[in-house]
Amino acid sequence: MSESARKVLILSGDLFFTSSLRSAAESAGFAAEIDAMPNAQRFVPKLASEEYSAVVIDLESPGLDVSKVIEALPAEPRPRTIAFGPHVQVARLEAARQAGCDHVVSRGQISANLATLLTGEA
User: Fold this and answer.
1) Distance between CA atoms of 31 and 14, rounded to whole angstroms?
2) How far, in Å, CA of 83 to CA of 103, rounded?
3) Residue 8 — φ and ψ, nearest 5°?
4) Which has the closest alpha carbon to 17: 76, 60, 49?
5) This prediction's pTM
6) How many angstroms separate the CA atoms of 96 and 69, rounded?
7) Does 3-119 carry CATH code 3.40.50.2300?
8) Boundaries of every domain in the chain
9) For residues 92, 55, 106 and 19, what is the CA-based torsion angle, rounded to 10 degrees?
C-alpha cells in the first residue's frame, strides 16, 4: 500500500465518536478525513478523486445510503469498507452486509478494533 493510500474516509456526523475513530486511525498510521455531513453529492466526488485505503461508514448517519457508498467506490484499488452501528439495529447491520461492506461491526467493536480492521488483520 502506497503512503498516499494510507488514508481513511470516515462518513459520520457524530463528531464526538469520530474524534475517537480519528485518533485510533492515526495511531495505526493512517491519515483520517471526516465527512460530518455525508451525502452522495459530497462523498462520490471524494471517492473518485482521492485514493483511500478504507472508508468507515456510520450507519446512523441521517440520509446516508450505504449501498450508494459501495456503488461509488473505485474498482481499483477498492478501499476496504467498514460499516458500524448499534448492535440492536440488526436490520441496518444486515443491510450493510447485503450492500457489500467488507466488515460490519457494532459501535463497541469498531471502538476496540478499528486499527486491526484498517490493516486487514481482522
Assistant:
1) 18
2) 6
3) -125, 135
4) 60
5) 0.91
6) 10
7) yes
8) 3-119
9) -120
Q: Helix, strand, coil: what percent of the chain each, to 5?
A: 45, 20, 35
The three cell numbers locating residue 50 = 482521492
Count of Cβ atoms closer than 10 Å to residue 121 Cβ: 8
**Furthest C-alpha separation in the chain:** 37
Secondary structure letter of residue 83 according to DSSP:
E
Q: Alpha helix locations (H) across the chain?
A: 15-27, 40-49, 66-72, 90-99, 107-119
Using CA atoms, how far apart are residues 1 and 53, in angstroms rounded to an integer?
8
Q: What does the block give as the cell for 86?
A: 448499534
Q: Tens digit of pLDDT for each residue in 8-65?
A: 999 998 989 999 999 999 999 999 999 888 777 788 888 888 899 999 999 999 888 9
